[in-house]
Design a protein that fits this description.
Blueprint (H helix, E strand, L loop, with lengths): L6 H12 L2 H10 L1 H5 L2 H5 L1 H19 L6 E3 H8 L6 H10 L3 E6 L4 E7 L6 H29 L4
Antiparallel strand pairs: 1-3, 2-3
């Protein structure tokens, strides 16, 4: 029996898990033959491109501190490797799917994101989350110290 090597498919799944648009584009170029041999993938290529862009948007938001989640269309287009005129559509799609919540400001060409759907995190994402929580903890301690120093006279 001849065995078919599907390691390339496992690599594709890892790329989606990492939400890496550049790796997806590179993968599609270097694995054209394997990709073309799978009619289901060929038929759903546009869906796969949308999926990787949505995952990359969620990952971008995860990496962005919650107080800095008003993002210009231009930044999103660059990070997600999208045409500028596709950013608003992708954001609306993500909102319609319940992946993110926010408000689109067409006049200023920005999107303010209030919330992003949680995902399964890998070790580097967990470490990033730990750093964010440490920063919030440090800010809270500073605010508490400042308040404590200025309210001594009131007691």
């Amino acid at each position: 029996s001849s065995r078919v090597n599907f390691s390339w498919l496992a690599q594709l799944l890892r790329i989606f898990h990492q939400s890496d648009v550049s790796a997806f584009v590179s993968f599609c170029e270097t694995h054209q033959e394997q990709f073309a041999s799978q009619p289901a993938l060929v038929a759903r290529l546009d869906f796969l491109k949308e999926k990787i862009a949505l995952l990359a948007l969620m990952n971008l938001l995860f990496q962005t501190p919650s107080h800095a989640r008003t993002l210009p269309f231009q930044l999103i287009a660059i990070r997600l490797q999208l045409p500028l005129d596709a950013v608003e559509w992708l954001a609306m799609r993500a909102m319609a799917l319940g992946l993110v919540r926010g408000k689109i400001d067409q006049v200023n060409a920005t999107i303010h994101f209030d919330w992003v759907q949680p995902r399964v995190l890998d070790h580097s994402q967990i470490n990033h989350l730990i750093l964010q929580l440490d920063a919030v903890s440090d800010k809270s301690k500073s605010a508490f110290s400042l308040l404590a120093d200025h309210t001594v006279d009131l007691i």
